[in-house]
Amino acid sequence: MKGIILAGGTGSRLHPMTAVVSKQLMPVYDKPLIYYPLTTLMRAGVREILVITTPRDQAAFQAQLGDGGQWGLRLRYVVQDQPRGLADAYRLGADFVEGGPSALILGDNIFHGHGSGRVIAQAAAPIAAGGEGAMIFAYRVADPRRYGVVELDADGRALSLEEKPAAPRSPWAVTGLYVYDGQAPEIAAALRPSARGELEITDLNRAYLEQGRLRVERLGRGFAWLDTGTPDSLLDAAAFVRTLEQRQGFKIACPEEVAWRMGWIDDAQLSRLAEGFGAADYGRYLRGVLAGG
């Protein structure tokens, strides 16, 4: 299964902070935001990833992430010249996906929970193995009016999808992580732009729902799903990461550590990466990982 990170957009809700730098390159505590969706895909076993950026920011993303080889990944980049909606990722990434299964994640979403990579990989396994359909990940929220909402029957099957409904039919929000079969580019190409001129991800998901091929995986209490689109939510995410890291002594969304634990890089490579950070806390942490396992 291949992966797509949508890291475009203007980040207008974060202006003036994002006037000259991409939201996904801003720090969430001690790492750039892009590391969080990147490592979510890595933990799920995804090694080939397409990063969609704005024309202005592509060089900065390439400087930050490189070609991914240092982490045992293969990263490619493509430009979205203007915001056209989340489903537009499959217009831009059609050649990259090559008719196979893929996972799409929004560049400003953070997922954290024990065994989250295993949960995501297992939920996506039927599609990743060549099966048909789409998978969305739902998360219970206190105020579903702020999100896309999926209504479920007693067996957890999707009944309806609504975008920011005034009277939500369920408390289950649709998160920014999706898994699709190889038909996603074809279905996305047939979508009509919404009133705001974008190809909506809800319309893509609704197409699978109408075909009876949309599955839902509910993320339970042990998971955290954070959106970082506003100054308050960005600060909340940083505080969440800081609290867990200082309390437990583990770093969240550390691609070097994830790659090493996945067996994609060896001890020597992890040591080289650690030395590249010198005396910085990040380098000391990586050396500690190598020493203590």
Structural class: alpha/beta
Strand content: 15-25%
How many helices in DSSP terms?
A: 11
Shape: globular
Provide the gyration radius in Å. 19 Å
**Major β-sheet profile:** 7 strands, mixed
Distance between the termini: 28 Å
Could you list the spans in which at least 5 consecutive residues all have pLDDT below 50? none
Q: State the helical fraction.
A: 25-40%
Largest sheet: spatial strand order: 5-4-1-6-11-8-12
Beta strand count: 13
Note the main attributes of this structure.
293 residues, alpha/beta, seven-stranded mixed β-sheet, two-stranded antiparallel ribbon, 11 helices, 13 strands, 34% helix, 24% strand
Task: Walk me through what this model shows.
The chain has 293 residues and is α/β, with parallel strands linked by helices. Helix content is 34%, strand content 24%. It has helices spanning 35-43, 58-65, 89-92, 94-97, 116-128, 184-189, 201-210, 231-248, 255-261, 267-276, 281-292; strands spanning 2-6, 27-28, 31-32, 48-53, 74-79, 102-106, 109-113, 134-140, 148-152, 158-163, 172-180, 214-219, 223-227. Strand 4 (48-53), helix 2 and strand 5 (74-79) form a beta-alpha-beta unit. The two termini are 28 Å apart. The mean pLDDT is 95.
